[in-house]
Amino acid sequence: MANPLILVSLCAMFLGGLGSLFIVIPMGTDTWEYYRYSETALLGKNHSGAYTVTLVNPNETAKIFRVDHFPDKDNHTAKPDYLFAQDAGLMRMCDKISAATKASIKSWPPMWKNTCYNFVTEFDEETSPLNSNGNILAKMQTSAASCLIVSTIDLITATVVGIIAILKKQVALCMVTGTLYMMAGIFGVFTVVIIYTKTAYEIDECFAFVPIPSELCKAREITYGYSISLVWVGVVLCVCTCGFWIFLARLLTFIKSRVML
Questions:
Q1: Is 115 exposed, middle or buried (0-12, 13-18, 19+ CB in 10 A)?
Q2: Cβ contacts of 24 within 8 Å, gap of 6 or more
Q3: Would you state the torsion angle of the CA atoms of residues 168, 169, 174, 175, taken in this order, to the nearest 10 degrees?
Q4: Which among 81, 103, 197, 240 counts the fewest CB atoms within 10 Å?
Q5: For 57-109, what is each residue's pLDDT tens digit?
């Protein structure tokens, strides 16, 4: 008959490794959120008295819509805004527009000159070209990324401490490992909740990284990708792993007490 201590240890290590994969892998993906614009809805707004919408590149797959604003009462005309599809990861936003197309547009926003914009390494609130709403979204994006980074650090530490705990049969280290997995799960929850909150601001309050008139918000479609689902699975596995490590600690305590008797 297999040793129950070995079985519980193997289950704890396996679940911990699996949970770590489900949390760490989504960090490098661009499949957290998808931003798309309905061509029919956008071009149908051309009769507005404040702006017109034009399809810039009808022959390309990655469409760009230019929003030209009419002069205000002081005869001041704002720069045109550009709406285009983007795929958002936890740390960056990317598009599929070619570099040649971007270079051909003189008023193209410098923030989106590259294929991807990294919020962690490039965003600086003091020099950010974003408006106040965009800065709020960017700070939420970096906060979510920071939470998942903390979760990853917890998982790495838990793996190292867990291996030592099993080799040395240390009850205290088993408890610490279980706590680390629980903390990793909690910070994973923080990550997805921040993303959900950010999306709620974008949908309900028309917040945007790319400037968009409020009347056109309904033409923007925001959908979640599979990465958020992976993180939720990772969170559940981390909580289960915590339970296994706590059980392992109790099992070790029981075995040691029996040996002492």
A1: middle
A2: 152, 155
A3: -110
A4: 103
A5: 888 888 999 888 877 666 666 778 899 999 999 999 999 998 889 988 888 88
How far apart are the C-alpha atoms of 88 and 95, rounded to whole Å? 9
The pair of structure tokens assigned to 235 is: 């969170």
Task: Give the residue numbers spanning the domain of 110.
Answer: 4-260
CB atoms within 10 A of CB 119: 22
- Determine contact, residues 154/181, Cβ cutoff 8 Å: yes
What's the structural domain count of the chain?
A: 1
CATH of the domain at 146: 1.20.140.150
What is the value of pTM for the model shown?
0.89
